[in-house]
Amino acid sequence: MVTMPVLQLDGAFSFIRISVAPSEFPALLAGHRMQYKGTDEVESCAGQLIAADFPLSASTTFIERVCRWGRGARHITRVNAAGGARIAHSLRSATEAIEAGHVADAIEELRNLPHLGLSFASKVARFLQPKKCVILDSVIRSHLGYVESKEGYAEFLRDCFQLLHMLRQSPDLEASLRDGLRVCDVEAAVFMKAKEKKNVSS
Predict the structure, then answer these.
(1) Which residues contact 144 (CB under 8 A, 6 or more apart)?
(2) Sequence-separated (6 or more) residues with CB below 8 Å from residue 131
(3) Which pLDDT belongs to residue 20?
(4) Per residue in 34-89, pLDDT tens?
(5) What is the pTM of this model?
(6) What share of the chain is helix, strand, coil (3-state, %, to 5)?
(7) At CB < 8 A and 24+ separation, what contacts does 135-141 make?
(8) Which H or E run includes 152?
(9) Hey, how many other C-beta atoms are within 10 angstroms of the C-beta on 10?
(10) CA distance 108 to 141
(11) In this predicted model, which residue has the larger pLDDT, 8 or 53?
(12) Would you list the DSSP string of 25-78?
C-alpha cells in the first residue's frame, strides 16, 4: 500500500488522507483514459509543436486543445487574447525550463499567460513533457493539501516522482505497466483516487 506523505504545516504534522495499492493503478489509469479522451492526440500535438519550434498558429491550437481536454474551453478566448507570439514564447520558455530541470519555474512562466492559472498551466506543462511534469488541480489540492503555489507544485511533483520510484520496484504490477509508467501517469492515478474519495467531478 502506498500512502501520500506526512507534511509539516505551521509546525504541526498533517497526515495526508489517501492511500493507493499498486494493484489499483491499472484500473485507475484506465478510468482516467475513459474520462479524459484524446490524451494521446494532445501529447502527439505537443511533440509536433516542439519539433517545429513553436509556430504561432500551432502554439495557439495546442493551448486550445489542452483547455478542451481539461474541460476548460471557457479559458480559450481569454488566453488567446495574449496573441500567438506571446503564447509561443511562453511555451518555448517553459519547455526550455523543464528540460533544464526547473519545472516549477516553467509553471510560473505559463501562469503569466492571461487567465491561465496554476491548474491549466500545469496541464499545459504535463503535455509538453509528460515524463517530467504533473497536473496540480483543485481536486488534488483540496484533498491532499498541496498549496496553490510554485512551492506546492514542486512538492507534489517530488512526491509523484517518489511514488513512481516505489511503483517501479513493486512486484504487484505487471512488468509491462511498471516499466512504462511515467510521472504523469502516477499523478493521473492519484487524481482518480482523490476524486473517488471525495465523490467530486472535474
Answers:
(1) 4, 16, 17, 18, 156, 190, 194
(2) 182, 183, 184
(3) 84
(4) 999 999 999 999 999 999 999 999 999 999 999 999 998 888 999 999 999 999 99
(5) 0.88
(6) 65, 5, 30
(7) 135/184, 135/187, 135/188, 135/191, 137/191, 137/202, 138/202, 139/191, 139/194, 139/195, 139/198, 139/200, 139/202, 140/187, 140/190, 140/191, 140/194
(8) helix 150-168
(9) 5
(10) 17
(11) 53
(12) HHHHHHHHHHHSTTHHHHHHHHHHHHHTT--HHHHHHHHHHHHHHTT-GGGHHH
In this predicted model, which residue has the larger pLDDT, 136 or 145? 136
Q: Is the pLDDT of residue 15 over 70?
A: no
The amino acid occupying position 102 is H
Q: Which residues have CB under 8 Å from 124's CB, separation 6+?
A: 62, 63, 66, 91, 94, 110, 116
